[in-house]
Design a protein that fits this description.
Largest sheet: 7 strands, parallel
Distance between the termini: 52 Å
Order of helices and strands: EHEHEHEHEHEHEH
Number of strands: 7
Shape: globular
Strand order of the largest sheet: 3-2-1-4-5-6-7
Radius of gyration: 17 Å
Number of helices: 7
Strand content: 15-25%
């Protein structure tokens, strides 16, 4: 068994996922990025060789289970699970009255169902190390319209965070780092916000947060958010 902490980051090849992986790798932890974007995974490892990559479809429980078994076999431990859900939601601006239910159900699966079964597959390892689960929660701006799907996913992840914290205490701590996902202007999802989210995740998986549980931290500059663009 390795003595280094081992951390999984799901969808670790997204722009936010990469920031989280690199931030955690700087703590001398073994960081395993899970994603089915193989080219982006190899690019991430090339950018920061401290990060490892495993080609995994995070929407399939069998793939996640195989990744957990491999980590147990290779490292013998898992100290933290960072669930960074896919945010590939339907095009912004679609009223809920016109939304295809297939898109609705797919988003619920990727953001909520996959989050649940990923925690379930990793739980035995996390209990052994008294580890942590951190949900990275994209949420719509308070003034956003036609954002029902993202709002439901966001509130679902917050509720899941609080419920799991109750169920898994004292063996495993569970937190959420919530950030504003701007669906109308991608440029507003800037690198500074992603750096702040990554720094919050780094804190929540550290021993400094070992006595905190079930909390939802908003990573947002509310002063700037409220200013007109």
């Amino acid at each position: 068994m390795t003595k280094q902490p081992v951390i999984i980051v799901t969808e670790g090849t997204t722009e936010l996922g990469k920031h989280i992986c690199k931030e955690l790798a700087a703590t001398q932890s073994i960081v395993m990025s899970l994603s089915n974007d193989e080219n982006a995974g190899y690019d991430l490892v090339a950018e920061d060789p401290r990060v490892r990559f495993r080609n995994t479809d995070c929407s399939k429980e069998s793939d996640v289970a195989a990744a957990a078994r491999e980590i147990e076999s290779q490292f013998g431990r898992l100290d933290a699970l960072v669930i960074n859900p896919s945010v590939s939601l339907p095009d912004v601006g679609i009223p809920f009255t016109e939304m295809d239910l297939f898109d609705w159900n797919q988003a619920l699966h990727h953001q909520l169902t996959a989050t649940l079964f990923t925690a379930r597959q990793c739980l035995p390892l996390l209990k052994t190390t008294k580890g942590a689960i951190v949900h990275v929660v994209p949420t719509p701006h308070e003034s956003a319209i036609n954002s029902e799907l993202l709002a439901v996913c966001s509130q679902g992840l917050v509720g899941l965070t609080e419920a799991l914290a109750n169920s898994l205490s004292p063996d495993v701590t569970v937190h959420a780092a919530r950030y504003i996902l701007n669906r109308t202007d991608v440029l507003k999802n800037d690198v500074n916000q992603f750096k702040d989210v990554a720094a919050m995740v780094r804190f929540l998986v550290s021993h400094k947060a070992s006595h905190i549980n079930g909390q939802v931290f908003n990573v947002s500059n509310r002063v700037l958010d409220k200013k007109p663009s």
